[in-house]
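tmp note - Pantothenate kinase
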Amino acid sequence: MESSGELVPFPLLTTPIESNYRACTIPYRFPSDNPKKPTPTELSWINLFLNSIPSFRKRAESDDTVPDAPIRAEKFAQRYSAILEDIKKDPESHGGPPDCILLCRLREQVLREVGFRDIFKKVKDEENAKAISLFKDVVCLNDAIEDEAKRVENLVRGIFAGNIFDLGSAKLAELFSEDGMSFLASCQNLVPRPWVIDDLDIFITKWSKKTWKKAVIFVDNSGADVILGILPFARELLRHGAQVVLAANDLPSINDVTYPELVEIISKLKDEHGKLIDVDTSNLLVANSGNDLPVIDLTTVSQELAYLASDADLVILEGMVRLLQLLVETGDCYLPWPCGVTY
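out:
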């Protein structure tokens, strides 16, 4: 169900939050910049969102749950383009100055205003079905790796490979529409280590020395990302003795998995005994994050998630833009970064 109630800060943020955390880490502008003139960084991001409009319009046109979808899709494209052009002229318009969160929110607002709720629903369902059929094979391949360090590395690589299924990126959406995406091919095509930011060995060392009590994982995309990347990793954490909380979006946004969808996916993957390929799932929880965007502002999460995360000792945020844009400060926070992917 959709979350209700007041949103609250993520409980593991360093306090005072105002001086230790901000949702958008990229410096879009400085105090010395003219408030009425867009900065080069702001223009780059506005143009990025402008360039993504054709792929969103095409996806909206094919939404057969909405009457007159092509007409409404054109209205979306025109209205959102006009908003972005307005912001170019006056960065303080439409709630600016702009950042990634505002640009995403405006896009979602326009889609809903013209009648679209979930333009990626069809492709999400298709990719979820494909990934569910591959889940057992992927898990068995990982389980067959006897060396724990190599197994954990393979699981992390699976997260990176799965996260390439991100249709919020215009380039990736174009690739997906032309050729589809293969999880195994993505695994093979990952940039070899060492990555630009590569703390995997540190993480594996901690894994071998420590049993985390509770891990909170902010999931990202539907399909291969959550099913073949995150869930095998979460299953390994369960085997390692941790309680695992998967935090998913409240409302649809691009092809991100939502809370109701994730609950349904896990129910389909469990066997008749409630196990996930021989692993007990009594310590696997799914939480509604309270979020409705592809990016996350950790000052506004659901009360349910805040309660479940209050005693977590491992937090994982997964996703491309989420990690470029967002900074979290906790005791143990590992940020899987799919290097070699341009968003």
